[in-house]
Amino acid sequence: MERLKGKRAVVTGGAQGIGAAIARRLAEEGARVAILDLNAGAASAVLPAPHIGIGCDVADSASVDSAFAQVKAQFGGVDVLVNNAGIGSTEGDGMDKFYAAQAERAAGSQVFADQTIYCADDAWARVLAISLNGAFWCSRAAVRLMAEEGIGGSIVNIGSTAAVKGNGPIPYCVAKAGIIGMTRSMARELADRGIRVNAVNPGATRTPLYANIPEETRQAIADDCLMKRLADPAEVAGAVAFLAGADGSYATGSVVTVNGRAWFD
């Protein structure tokens, strides 16, 4: 089934994990896909021609504008944007202290898990620059191209259930909460242009991001959901494909949760 036949899609952070799964799914649905990633070589390796990989730092608006100029030159425009690029944790954000404190508490020590105390300015700024600012820079560039053609489009933002539950690094939770706010605001603004804006909130998913989390923490996260496992990236990609295409034509400002029922609100 090719629900996106003839569509031109951009997937950010698409060289691995959820992004790569989304890129492959959109290609299977008939779209031509441009994969944007810091690692241009890895992005180009995800899919063969006519799909393309482009080096892009989403935290840099000039880099984003340059990448979308390349997409326009090769594809003529954009019909679908998936804002997937993001980071969960970075050096200096205090999560090393948090995990160490968790381990001590599990052993019976009375210590505090003080990420707030130890989170440095540059760590805070880096997570928000990539995970929130980058989604806005890419949305702005895509909307400019969609508006030029006047044929509408679809934007799907990858959020996280951490935005609701607060289980994760503080800058990450804040960035993903911002993604949900941006989704709803843009959906309201862009509906008259025929541009739909939705979000997918994945729960814990088997990606390289989770490879850096201690095994006991990973298992506790899996045990916290009804399905007792982490998601597969392809399961998140399926929700994105629905929102991106005609099957989701009456959905805008929506947040689809794919988390194995780990959160009940």
Q: Can you describe this structure?
A:
This protein is α/β, with parallel strands linked by helices and 265 residues long. It has a single domain (8-257), classed as Rossmann fold, CATH 3.40.50. It has 11 helices and 7 strands. It has a 7-stranded parallel sheet with strand order 3-2-1-4-5-6-7, with helices on both faces. The longest helix is centred in the middle third of the chain and has 29 residues, at 121-149. The protein is globular and about 60 Å long.
Short description:
The protein is of the alpha/beta class and 265 residues long. It has eleven helices and seven strands. It has a seven-stranded parallel β-sheet, sandwiched between helices.
